[in-house]
Specification:
Helices cover 65% and strands 5% of the residues. A two-stranded antiparallel sheet has the order 1-2. It has a two-stranded antiparallel sheet with strand order 3-4. It starts with a helix and ends in a 15-residue tail after the last helix. It catalyses: riboflavin(in) = riboflavin(out). InterPro entries: Riboflavin_transptr (IPR009357).
Length: 447
């Protein structure tokens, strides 16, 4: 296998969600400077789900007009659009437009819609494109997709986004009365730490990451060493024969050991290796784990972690982001395709997710809130949650890759469907009915 191809596949996958992930981690610095304030996350959730019109269009075209869309051209367009949108955000993110007599961050919301359309559409275009390469490189792509969440988090951590300090503030009581010894009360006030560099610089960094993704995509299409890694590449007979022989050696270990050779097709899906019941089982798990890991639990991460302190919150966010590419790395060397094992991991991850959700519901006074062990447990819970479900997602991707191009298109569509259902479920609970309470990070007291 080519190390260069692995690197390019990783960089290509990194561009899939880097812009939206970067926007989320930058919210602590954006929110204080725009009129929407902390209602912005709710607006962003709605906008991102509206942007699913992109993958819906691609999926419908694939279903009813197969072969009409030029896959490479679509990828060029969405990467270019993402690059331009993130670059423009650096200039216009805090500009406002008066709508119905109220100032609104229209440029920010519009550009966010384009970013969301780019990232959502990548789920149904980037994955199918990886069919052009050997199956081993799909896992590397997933590593890059995990890095798309890790890298912005690390940069935001260096920037100092979201770091809160509790400072003493004094308030004089009875100061309006002529009482020389008026009582003075003291309390703690939450104050965000000044950023080490501006939000504009952060958006330009995201734009540069999208350019890196574009460069990686160009090389994946035209670099000679990458072309030799394509199963259907046309080279001289000598090179072609060597490539074919190498494929036979490399592909065989990646085949499912539980799948007998020359078996009768069990369904019309893909190669017919799985029955329709198993296909629905696989896609059901795929939708479930993406709903949990992409929208349901992330929407309450601050509620589950902040009561244990800023360190617990930032550690859980950073280590959870690291767990995603780590799970992909493990799957590269230990790809267990057993459907039973996949279900067991899903149950474990769901159980951990239930614990996280309970802590979020109990916020601002969850279990062990005044004990160091409480913070340790919630951080480990987030790491285990992301680690198990990310592994499941990668294995499903590897399984569907062997079922053909169409299977990967549906894989991306189900990923977005699961995320959509999770967002639709959580939005009213968090933003409308206020079932969750964050409390004051500096003054909340729990007995």
């Amino acid at each position: 296998m080519s190390l260069l191809t692995h690197l390019l596949a990783c960089l290509f996958g990194m561009g899939s969600w880097v812009s939206i992930n970067g926007l989320w981690v930058e919210l602590p610095l954006i929110v204080p400077q725009i009129p929407e304030a902390w209602y912005l996350p709710s607006y962003l959730s709605v906008i991102i789900q509206m942007a699913n019109i992109g993958p819906l269009f691609v999926t419908l075209m694939h279903r009813f007009r197969p072969g009409t869309l030029n896959e490479r051209a679509v990828i060029y367009v969405i990467i270019g659009l993402g690059t331009v949108a993130t670059f423009l955000l650096g200039f216009f993110w805090k500009e406002t437009v008066v709508v119905a007599g109220v100032a609104r961050s229209v440029p920010l919301l519009v550009l966010t819609f384009f970013l969301a359309a780019v990232d959502c559409t990548s789920s149904v275009t980037f994955l199918p494109f990886m069919m052009r390469l050997k199956s081993q490189y799909l896992t590397t792509y997933y590593i890059g997709e995990g890095v798309s969440g890790l890298l912005p988090s690390l940069v935001a951590l260096i920037q100092g986004a979201g770091i809160v300090h509790c400072i003493n503030s004094t308030q004089s009581v009875n100061y309006t009365l002529n009482i020389p010894n008026g009582s003075v009360t003291s309390n703690l006030q939450a104050q965000y730490q000044p950023a080490n560099f501006s939000t504009e610089v952060f958006f330009f960094f995201l734009s540069a990451m999208m350019l890196v993704c574009l460069g990686a995509f160009l090389l994946l299409n035209y670099h000679p060493s990458v072309a030799r890694e394509q199963p259907n590449s046309r080279y001289t007979n000598r090179v072609k024969q060597k490539t074919k022989n190498r494929e036979l050696v490399e592909q065989k270990p990646m085949m499912d050991p539980y799948r007998p050779e020359n078996q009768k097709p069990r369904s019309s899906f893909g190669t017919g290796s799985y029955s329709w019941m198993e296909v629905f089982y696989i896609f059901g798990i795929l939708a479930w784990v993406n709903a949990l890991s992409n929208t349901v639990l992330p929407s309450v991460q601050s509620y589950s972690c902040m009561p244990y302190g800023n360190n617990a919150y930032h550690l859980s966010a950073s280590l959870a982001a690291l767990s995603n590419p780590l799970a992909c790395f493990i799957a590269m060397f230990l790809p267990i395709r057993s459907l039973l094992f996949m279900g067991a991991l899903t149950v474990i991850g769901t159980g951990v997710g239930v614990y996280i959700m309970i802590m979020a519901v109990l916020s601002p006074c969850p279990v062990l809130v005044n004990d160091t062990s409480g913070g340790v447990i919630i951080v480990l819970a987030w790491v285990l949650f992301i680690l198990t479900l990310s592994y499941v997602k990668v294995i499903i991707g590897v399984i569907l890759r062997d079922e053909g191009h169409s299977a990967l298109v549906w894989c991306g569509a189900v990923v977005q469907l699961g995320s959509l259902l999770g967002a639709v479920t959580m939005f009213p609970l968090v933003s409308v009915y206020d079932y969750f309470s964050s409390g004051d990070p500096c003054n909340t007291k729990c007995s």
